[in-house]
Amino acid sequence: MTTYYEFYNPVKLLSGEMALEQIGQELQYLQVQQPLLITDPGIRASGLLEKCLRILSLAGCPVDTIYDQTPTDSSLAVVSEIAEQYDREQCDGLIALGGGSVMDTAKGVNILVSEGVSDLLQFAGAHVLKRPLKPLIAVPTTAGTGSEVTAVAVIRDEERRQKLAFVSQFLLPHLAVLDLRTTLKLPPQITAATGMDALTHAVEAFTCLAKNPMSDAYATAAIGLIGNHLTSTVKKSSDKAGRMALANAAAMSGIAFSNSMVGMVHALGHVLGAHCHLPHGQAMSILLPHVLHYNMNKGQKNYEASLSELLVYLKGAEHFAAVSPEQRPAQTIDAIRELKNQLYELCRLPRTLSETGKVKKDQLQDIAREAVYEPSTIYNPVEMDVEDALRILQQAFDDH
Q1: Count of alpha carbons within 13 Å of 338, Cβ hemisphere only?
Q2: Is the pTM value of this prediction over 0.85?
Q3: Which of 169, 281, 285, 396 could form a disulfide with 197 if both were Cys (CB 3.0 to 4.6 A apart)?
């Protein structure tokens, strides 16, 4: 536990039914008259974009400028293309309607249009930005990434086959809007994958080296909500209470890891995504128990104590009390494996890297070699070398 910590969470949150209707007055407050709305083809095809545009128009803030071709794995080229549209249409603010890729893309666009530059690479890394950006409103359509409340954007550099991280408090959206209508028709497998993404954020936030009392509070609250609602919401997609619980959990997880960082699960997952185009939520779900097991086996008492405490939030106080203290860390990992298996039975969310059909065994060595240089490894509670990373990937390839 750190003796000194900093915590920063300035994002205004609108959460619940009718939250979308409040965006009009927020745009007025932010003095935005010509927003550019960024989304993706899936949201356009689902009818959700049309529904949101109708709601915004009735609320007195019609949106005329739209970019709806954001890919699943966004890139520097896409960010540049949207920034050009923003300038061409003389926009003065941004609305991101989508999952993590859309929101991270919008953050990248905001850097270019606010700084008046065309090269995003010069802002890669941590704390390069030095001043506030244009107004950005984030409306998540999945409950997983937490990007609506984070100071991080991850964008793919196609040329170098890398995922670049951009970290700055100025990347935080001005407003996050959690409206259950945006996630109500999310398919079961995406609900499951994004839920596991949020769970991974919270678990790594609670167990990494930079954890602090405030981030712990958000992380454990998120884990409790996910443990109570993820499988039931996958079973019944129209469960409104479950949808709102998962949306709030994703935001809480995002706030937690923005203030404590993540660890080895994300280091490995980012490189897997860059090399294999593996969806981030799937990578998190597959890798989480393997990394926790690796860390636990290093025998650090503080880490084992953190794992033990998480059992309360995953399985409840009664179950926790019935398990002997020395068994609790392993039982926490078993609870996550059990959740993975339940999700596989419900919606075939892959349990192993081989089940994804996107990862080949001969790629693992290169992935391991790159992962140890990922910034997230700095905050992992134990050190990792290439052989450690490769061992974890090999286990995750076959063993669920």
Answers
A1: 10
A2: yes
A3: 281
Q: What is the Cβ-side half-sphere exposure of residue 327, based on CA atoms within 13 angstroms?
A: 9
| Contact by Cβ (8 Å): 166, 152 | yes
Whether the CB-CB separation of 269 and 287 falls below 8 Å is answered with: yes
Type and span of the H or E element at 242:
helix 240-260
- Cα separation, 110 vs 133, in Å, equals 6
Which residue is it, tokens 């392993």? 330
Cα 139 from Cα 27, distance rounded (Å): 13
- Strand bridging mode 93-98 / 136-140: parallel
- Do 343 and 349 touch, CB atoms closer than 8 A? yes
Q: Are strands 175-178 and 65-67 parallel, antiparallel or unpaired?
A: unpaired
| Amino acid present at 177 | V
Structure tokens at 278: 């593996």
| CA 361 from centre of chain | 26
Whether the CB-CB separation of 210 and 261 falls below 8 Å is answered with yes
pLDDT per position in the chain (400 positions), as tens? 557 999 999 999 999 989 999 999 999 999 999 999 999 999 999 999 999 999 989 888 899 999 999 998 889 999 999 999 999 999 999 999 999 999 999 999 999 999 999 999 999 999 999 999 999 999 999 999 999 999 999 998 888 878 888 999 999 999 999 999 999 989 999 999 999 999 999 999 999 999 999 999 999 999 999 999 999 999 999 999 999 999 999 999 999 999 999 999 999 999 999 899 899 999 999 999 999 999 999 877 889 999 999 999 999 999 999 999 999 999 999 999 999 999 999 999 999 999 999 999 999 999 999 999 998 999 999 999 999 999 999 999 998 7
Q: Which residues contact 339 (CB under 8 A, 6 or more apart)?
A: 196, 199, 227, 230, 231, 314
